[in-house]
Amino acid sequence: MNLIATSETQGEGHSARRNAVLESALALLVEGGERALTTAGVARAANCSKESLYKWFGDRDGLLAAMITFQASKVRAEPQPVGARGLPALRAQLVGIATNLLRVLAGDVSIALNRLAIGKAHRDAADLGQLVLDHGRRPIETRLSALLEAGRDAGLIAFDDTREAYATLYGLVVRDMHVRLLLGEPKQPFSPAARAEQAVDQFLRLFGAEETTGPARERTGSGSPNNAPNTP
C-alpha cells in the first residue's frame, strides 16, 4: 500500500469535508441569522455529528473564526512572478484579486457576517468584529501588500508606506459599495471585473514608477492623506 498517497488522499478528503461544513454554516447564517447558527443546527445542515464539529473547530468562536477565514480565502489570484514579466503581470494579478474581492464583498455571506459583527460590537464577550479583522480583512491585506511590495521591488510602482498604498488601492476598488450594502441598499448590477480594472488602472496612474509611466507625467505622491480612504 502507498502510505503517502493514502495519507494525502485522506487529508484532501478531510479538508473537502470540513469546507463543506463551513459552506453549510455560512448558508445557515444567511438564511436564518445568528439564531440559526447553533451547533445542532450546523450539524444537521451539514449532515455531520456535533462531535466532529467540536473536533474540527472547538467552540462556537472557533467555528466563526473558521467561517471568516474560509470566506476570506475566496479572495485570491494565482501567484506569478512580477519582475520578469513586468507591469502587465502585476496589473493582471491586482485585477484578479480585486475582482474576487468585489465578488466576495457583494455576496450575501459577506454581508451577513459583517452585519453580525457590527451588531455584536462591544456587546459580547467574544469580539466577533475582531475575528472579522484578524481572520478576514488582515489576510487579504497581507496578500495584497506582499504583491504591492513585490511590484515596488521590481521597480514597477513606487511608494513609501505599504499601508497607505494598500488603503488607497482598497478604497479605489471597494469605494462605498460595501457600506451601502450593509445599510440595506438594493444591489445594483455591476461588473466586478470592469470595476477592478478601472480601480487598478487608477492606482497604477497614482503609484506607477517613472520608468513605467514616462517622465513627462506628473505622479501623485504616496503619502497624501487624501489618498487613504476610510475602509469598512
UniProtKB/TrEMBL annotation:
> Which SUPFAM superfamilies would you find in this protein's record?
Homeodomain-like (SSF46689), Tetracyclin repressor-like, C-terminal domain (SSF48498)
| Pfam families assigned | TetR_C_7, TetR_N
Instruction: Point to the regions of Polar residues compositional bias.
Output: 221-232
Q: Does the keyword Ribonucleoprotein apply?
A: no
| Statement: the UniProt record of this protein carries the keyword DNA-binding | yes
Q: Which residues form the signal peptide?
A: none
Q: Which residues form the HTH tetR-type domain?
A: 15-75
Q: Which UniProt keywords apply?
A: DNA-binding
DNA-binding annotation, residue ranges on this chain: 38-57
Give me the ranges of the annotated region Disordered. Answer: 211-232
Instruction: Name the chain's protein.
Output: AcrR family transcriptional regulator
